[in-house]
Amino acid sequence: MDQSLMNLPPMPGQRLARGVARMLRSMDHAVLTEFVPSRGLRVDVISLSPKGEFWIVECKSCRADFAMDRKWQGYLDWCDRYFWAVDCDFPSDLLPAETGLIMADAYSAEIQRMAPETRLAGARRTKVLRDFARAGAQRLQGLTDPESISVSAF
């Protein structure tokens, strides 16, 4: 078996998230996947741009995945720009026109429609920035010393 295929995330949405994260890194964003901005919410990808903008990207692998998502509008309050990431077979006309659109696969991604900017309020930005930094630091510590940190901290 091709070694590169063995390293792919197992689920279709996770594969899209990987391609999105690679694209965002190429744009000099700091990226986290599976980030919890608030109790009951977990975004697929969040990034911090060089300008200090928070972008949230939700990865949808199929029509049913999108139709079942009842929380996505709650994510709008936690970012400056909101995007959907889908593959080339996804019926993108289902996605709200007032959101960004990214075409992705497991290896890369490309912005098709830039999300409109809706600036976070100062107090909310401070909370997201603090939580983003803590999550990133905890994940890094977990990689360098797995015994030092519990899984629940992620």
Report on this model:
By secondary structure, the protein is of the alpha/beta class. It has five helices and six strands, in the order ααβββααβββα. The protein has helices spanning 3-6, 12-26, 63-68, 72-75, 122-144, and strands at 30-35, 43-48, 54-59, 81-86, 100-104, 109-113. It has a six-stranded mixed beta sheet. A hairpin with a 7-residue loop joins strand 1 and strand 2. The longest helix has 23 residues, at 122-144. The chain is globular. The N and C termini lie far apart (32 Å). The model has no long low-confidence stretch (mean pLDDT 91).
Give keywords.
globular, alpha/beta, 22% strand, 34% helix
Low-confidence stretches: none
Averaging pLDDT over every residue, what do you get? 91
Helix content: 25-40%
Strand order of the largest sheet: 1-2-3-4-5-6
Beta-strand percentage range? 15-25%
How far apart are the termini? 32 Å
Helix and strand content put the structural class at: alpha/beta
Number of helices: 5
Shape: globular
The total count of strands amounts to 6
CA-atom Rg in angstroms? 15 Å
**SSE string, helices as H and strands as E:** HHEEEHHEEEH
Reported for the largest beta sheet, the result is: 6 strands, mixed
Topology:
Elements: H1 3-6, H2 12-26, E1 30-35, E2 43-48, E3 54-59, H3 63-68, H4 72-75, E4 81-86, E5 100-104, E6 109-113, H5 122-144
Parallel strand pairs: 3-4, 4-5
Antiparallel strand pairs: 1-2, 2-3, 5-6
